Hints:
The chain has 22 helices and 2 strands. The protein has 444 residues and is mostly helical. Helix 11 runs antiparallel to helix 22. The chain is globular and about 70 Å long.
Amino acid sequence: xxxxxxxxxxxxxxxxxxxxxxxxxxxxxxxxxxxxxxxxxxxxxxxxxxxxxxxxxxxxxxxxxxxxxxxxxxxxxxxxxxxxxxxxxxxxxxxxxxxxxxxxxxxxxxxxxxxxxxxxxxxxxxxxxxxxxxxxxxxxxxxxxxxxxxxxxxxxxxxxxxxxxxxxxxxxxxxxxxxxxxxxxxxxxxxxxxxxxxxxxxxxxxxxxxxxxxxxxxxxxxxxxxxxxxxxxxxxxxxxxxxxxxxxxxxxxxxxxxxxxxxxxxxxxxxxxxxxxxxxxxxxxxxxxxxxxxxxxxxxxxxxxxxxxxxxxxxxxxxxxxxxxxxxxxxxxxxxxxxxxxxxxxxxxxxxxxxxxxxxxxxxxxxxxxxxxxxxxxxxxxxxxxxxxxxxxxxxxxxxxxxxxxxxxxxxxxxxxxxxxxxxxxxxxxxxxxxxxxxxxxxx
Length: 444
């Protein structure tokens, strides 16, 4: 049997496993990578070489650097400042402000961490006597903004680093740290505007249940706010225990380190992995975070998928399966002489956007970005429009099933159909925005 055929069988089985999720996604990705080695499609060393790649190291470092903003109290300080501004006097304005903040934060750190930070802040503000803010109207927009904000930079979410691996395997032009921002930022602004207009109106109409707030969520946040100020010590307790005390010095070190790492990314003097690991090392050396906290802040499930994805992509490349799949797809559009890269890009974005409502965004990226990269390679065009289109299309579903960020917002008391009624119009607008802007911002 041809190696390309074996590789396609492995890929097909992996896709089925990704869809069913009977076993963890990381297990499927690693089994697929190992199967490529077992059947001689790739050398055994390539099955795990991805764990030491620049992409994997960048993700590890940025998880640590991003988490330091929470460990040192920088993030909770931001929330406390927000709660004292005049925006709390107008719910519509408040929603637009917090969605923008959540989206901006999630561009550089974990989406889940951002939402976990915002939940008690929103609950605290909404529970105050005479408050004009309701948790049910704010939490859903914030969750959506955090998910979309993750598509602005290379460190914002997992799909883009999976895509980077596919590009690297084929020797194609890779994404710069802010390349996604050309479409990612307009998508985030669309979310902000939507929830300040149509979305807010829909929420008022759809969310007819009483606003129920879990008081236990608020305790640590309120206690932290009450202890603000005084000397070099401030209390951070939005996510961590309210008994944890950190210094303003460490808050500054953490903030400046994040800024320095991003500046390093922009300078392109060294690799992304170098700068992110340098930032993580500085934070550990200055005791802003402990080695134990650093390791705990890394999502090893994500790293496992990224490491295995490189072997997965290598198998596609080495066996010729990627080219075979790409050629078959191109033939559906009339063949290489007729097929339009624009139409293929539109089709793959739409398919991904539809599937993201039922499948994990990471699983979708693992399945579709190598295919998109191979199609671009076969057509001889710049791959960014297709690959970034897939990456962005994996974010922005209208159900709480496939995206952890939206799942976290269930604490707001939402029902499944609440998500559908409120987010489906936004999902459609996001898909159209991606379809229109990707070919414009990333010419073939």
